[in-house]
Amino acid sequence: MTVRSVASAIVPLMFAAAAFASSDFTLDDQFERTHRRADIFKDAPVVMIAGAQRKTPDAMQ
């Protein structure tokens, strides 16, 4: 594994904007029905990660 491949694996982690254990949240579907976390994930712990997507050719393979 080269330094470049290690760096390309780590870079997406650096751009993670938020990573947190979820509290109770709600999501609305396309039919405007509201669903709670408990409905979707059966009260299991959930981790949400939001960040930048890579736009490089190797990420699209």
Structure description:
With 61 residues, the chain is α+β, with helices and mostly antiparallel strands. It has one domain. The chain contains two helices and four strands, in the order H-E-E-E-H-E. The chain has helices at residues 3-14, 37-41, and strands at residues 16-21, 26-28, 34-36, 47-51. Strands 1-4 form a two-stranded antiparallel ribbon. It is extended, with a radius of gyration of 17 Å. 0% of the residues are buried. The model is unreliable at 3-21 (pLDDT under 50).
**Percent of residues in helices:** 25-40%
Outline the biggest β-sheet: 2 strands, antiparallel
Number of strands: 4
Number of helices: 2
Structural class: alpha+beta
In which order are the strands of the major sheet placed? 1-4
Uncertain ranges: 3-21
What's the overall geometry? extended
Give the end-to-end Cα distance, rounded to a whole number of Å: 18 Å
What is the fold's blueprint, element by element?
Elements: H1 3-14, E1 16-21, E2 26-28, E3 34-36, H2 37-41, E4 47-51
Antiparallel strand pairs: 1-4, 2-3
Question: Short summary of the structure?
Answer:
The chain has helices at 3-14, 37-41, and strands at 16-21, 26-28, 34-36, 47-51. With 61 residues, it is α+β, with helices and mostly antiparallel strands. It has one domain (3-54).
Q: Which terms would index this structure?
A:
about 60 residues, alpha+beta, two-stranded antiparallel ribbon, 2 helices, 4 strands, about 30% helix, disordered N terminus
